[in-house]
Design goal:
The complex is a heterodimer of chains A (306) and B (362).
Chain A: H1 3-30, H2 38-56, H3 59-83, H4 88-107, E1 121-122, H5 132-136, E2 138-139, H6 141-159, H7 161-171, H8 173-178, H9 183-209, H10 221-231, H11 236-259, H12 265-269, H13 271-284, H14 287-293
Antiparallel strand pairs in A: 1-2
Helix pairs in contact in A: 1-6, 1-9, 1-10, 1-11, 2-3, 2-4, 2-9, 2-10, 3-4, 3-9, 6-7, 6-11, 10-11, 10-13, 11-13
Chain B: E1 2-7, H1 13-37, H2 42-51, H3 57-82, H4 90-107, H5 116-142, H6 146-166, H7 201-218, H8 220-230, H9 232-237, H10 242-269, H11 280-290, H12 295-319, H13 325-345, E2 346-351
Antiparallel strand pairs in B: 1-2
Helix pairs in contact in B: 1-2, 1-13, 2-12, 3-7, 3-10, 3-11, 3-12, 4-5, 4-6, 4-10, 4-11, 5-6, 5-10, 7-8, 7-12, 11-12, 11-13, 12-13
The chains are: A mainly alpha (306), B mainly alpha (362).
Amino acid sequence: MDLTEAVLITIVTASTPLLLAAIGELVVERAGVLNLGVEGMMIVGAVAAFAAAYGTGSATLGILSGALAGVALSLLFALFAVLIATNQVATGLALTLFGLGLAGLIGEPFVGKPGLRLDALPIPGLSAIPVIGPAFFTRDVLVYLSFILVVGVSLFLARSRAGLVLRAVGENPEAAQNLGYRVRLIRIAAVAFGGACSGLAGAHLSLAYTPQWAEGMTGGRGWIALALVVFATWMPSRVFLGAYFFGAIAILQLHAQAVGLGLPSQAMTALPYIATIIALVLLSRDAILLRRHTPAALGRPYVPVR
Amino acid sequence: MRLEVSLRGERGLLLDTLSALVALAVTVAIAGLIFAALGADPLAGLHAFFLSPLLDAWSLQEVAVKAAPLILIGLGLSLCYRANVWNIGAEGQFTAGALLGSVPAVLFPDWQGPLVLPAMLILGMVGGMAYAAIPAFLKVRFRANEILTSLMLAYVALLVLDYLVRGPWRDPMGFNFPESRLFTGDQRLLRLVEGTRLHAGLLLVVAAVPLVWFVTRYTLAGFSLRVIGEAPRAGAFAGFSRARITYAVFAACGALAGLAGILEIAGTVGQLRPVISPGYGFAAIIVAFLGRLSPLGVAMAGLVLAVSYIGAEAAQVSIGVSDKVARVIQGTLLFSVLACDALARYRLRLVTTPAGAPAAGE
C-alpha cells in the first residue's frame, strides 16, 4: 500500500461523518428549519453508538443506537422549534449545549475503554480497482450509506413529488398549507431525518474514525457540517465535494504535523476552522448567489394560520 | 386533534419574570428526575446541587467568583441578541482578552507599580474587542454568518492559548508544566477581604450591570439597537445603520468578555494555563436568555448558573453523582426558558375540530 492510497483511505474516513451530518442538515434546511444542534446530536450519537457496541459486542446495534439517539434529540428540537415555535437559533444552541453535557455524562464510564471497529465490507469487483478500490469500495457500511444518501437525497429533492412538497414547505409554508400539506408534520419528519444522519455521523466517529470514546470527540465537526450546507448552496452534490474537501484538509494537516513543517501543531489543528471561515466568506460575498439558493423560509418559525 | 398556536397580546416585565421563575422551577423538577435516573436520592441531590452552595461562606464566595465572568459575558451577549446578532463565540473573546491582558505580566515580569493592572485590564478589553471585531467585519463586509464564524474563532483562540502556554509563554522555572509564570504583586487584583478569593474585579462586575442598563435604556445607541433588533425595517427608515450596530454590539460584547477573561486570570487563576474556563462563554448564552436579555436579569441568572457549577461539585462529593451533570442541567435550563418564553408569547391549545374547519365565533 503506497502513501497516496493510505492518505486517500483516511480522507474518506474523515469525510464520512461530515458528509452524513451535512446531508441530513441539508434536508432539514430545505424544509425551512435551521437546526444548530448538529454538534449535540452528533456527540450523543457517538456515545450511544459506542456504549451499545461496547455493551452488546454488536456494531450493528451500535449504529442503530447512534441513529436512534440522534432522532431522539432531534425530536426534542422539533417539539420546541416546530410545535411551539421557539426561536430556532436559540433552540439549536440549547440542543448542542444539552447534547454535549449529556454525552459527557453518559460517556464517563467508557473513557479509555477499547472500542469496536466497523468491519470493512469489500464490494466485489469495484474493490479490485487500484487506489480507488481500497479507499472507496473496501469500507464499512456507513461509508456506503453516505454515498447512497447523497444520491438518494439528490433524487428525492429534485425528482420526487414528496421532495417538491418538502421544498415548498421550506420556501413558502403558508402556500404549502393552503394546498393542504401538513407543514409542521413535514418539518418534524425532516428534522428527524437530520437527527438520524447526525447520529450516524457520530456513530462513524466512535466506531470507525477513532474507535473509542473521548469527551468532546466531535471537536466542532457538527458546526463544520452546518457551514458545509451553506457552502454547498443547499445542493447535495456540492455537499459531497465540500465534505471531501474538509476531510482532506483534516487529514493533510495531520500528515503535515507528522512531517513537521516547523509550524506549531496547534496552527495545523486550527486549519479546518480557519478554512471554514475562509470558505464561508468566499461564498457569502456573492449576495445574489446566496439569496437565490437559501430556502426562503429558513429559520422562520411557522405558526399555522386558521 | 391538533395543536393550535396563536399570539397572546402584551408581554411585560411581570410575565417575563414569571416565565423565568417557572423555567427555573421546571428545571429543578427535571434535575430531580435526572438525579433519580442516576440512582441517587433526588431530594438529597437537589439539596446538594441548588441549596448547599448558598449555605456556607466558602461556597458563597465561590459562587460570586464564578458568577463574575458569567455576568460580564452574559451582559455582552444580551446586547448582541437584542440586536439579533448571534454571537456565540464569547469563549474566544474571553480567551483573547485573557491573552492580550496577560502580555504585561508575561513579557515584562518585573513591571510593578500602579499602572500595571490598569494596563492589563485595558489590554484585556481591547483583546476581546479586537477578536469580536473579526466576525463583525466578516458579517458586515461579506455577509458571512456570524454564528459559524464566531464559533470557529473560539476554537482558534483556544488553540492559540494552548500554543502560547506550551511554547513561548511557558514559565522557564515551571518544571516544564504548560503554564505561564505566576503573576505577582501589582499584577494581581487586590483581595476585597483578606483570606478569601473575592477580588476587586467583582466591583467592576457590580458596576457593569447598571452601566449596561443605563446605556440600553437611556441612550440613543441603546434605543437604536432595540429598534434594529425588533423591527429592522423601521430601524432602517429611522436611519439606524445595521452595520454600525453590528460592530457596536460585537465590540461591546468582546470588551466585556475580554474583561471577564483578564479578571479571571489576574483575579482568580493568577497565571495562564491550557484551560482557563469551564465553558463560561457558552454557559453565558444561557445566562443571557434566562436573564431575559435585561441587565438585572442577567446578573441574577449569572448567579444561578454559578450555583450550578458549585452545586455540581457539591453533589459529586455528597451523593457521588458526576459533576458532569452540571452541563446537562444547564442545557435543560435553556430548554425550559425557551419553552416558558414561547408559552408566555403564544397561546397553545388542543382542538378536536378537523384542520381547516372554521372555529366557533369566527
